[in-house]
Amino acid sequence: MAGFMDRAKEQAQRGLTQGKQKLDEVQAQRAGGDLLKRLGAAYYAERKGTGSPEATQQALQALESHIAVNGDGVLRS
Predict the structure, then answer these.
(1) 29 close to 67: Cβ distance less than 8 angstroms
(2) Long-range contacts of 71-76 (CB under 8 A, 24+ apart)
(3) Which of 56, 64, 74, 75 could form a disulfide with 42 if both were Cys (CB 3.0 to 4.6 A apart)?
(4) Confidence band, pLDDT 50/70/90 cuts, at residue 77
């Protein structure tokens, strides 16, 4: 009986770990998508004449930092 409980506990722990990894991945993708939208909005505003090149550059740097940490998965659809 103890062996069964140990295996069940181990399997539950593995499930929790995998779930947390997936949650972290989804959150990183969502944050990356938000940064990508921010870059697009900054670029649009700059082209329209209501934004600045500095805002576009800041948005680009934020996205590049996110990609450096989390990979470029946000750029894929």
Answers:
(1) no
(2) 73/28, 73/29, 73/32, 74/28, 74/29, 74/32, 74/33, 74/35, 74/36, 75/32, 75/36
(3) 56
(4) low
CA–CA gap between residue 23 and residue 27 (Å, rounded): 6
Please name the residue ranges forming H helices in 1-52.
2-48
Tokens of 58: 């800041």
- With CA atoms as reference, report the closest residue to 25 among 64, 59, 74, 63: 74
Buried b (16+ CB within 10 A) or exposed e, 35-60: bbebbeebbeebeeeebeeebbeebe
pLDDT at 47 over 90: yes
Q: How far apart are CA 50 and CA 62, in angstroms?
A: 20
What's the whole-number mean pLDDT along residues 22-32? 92
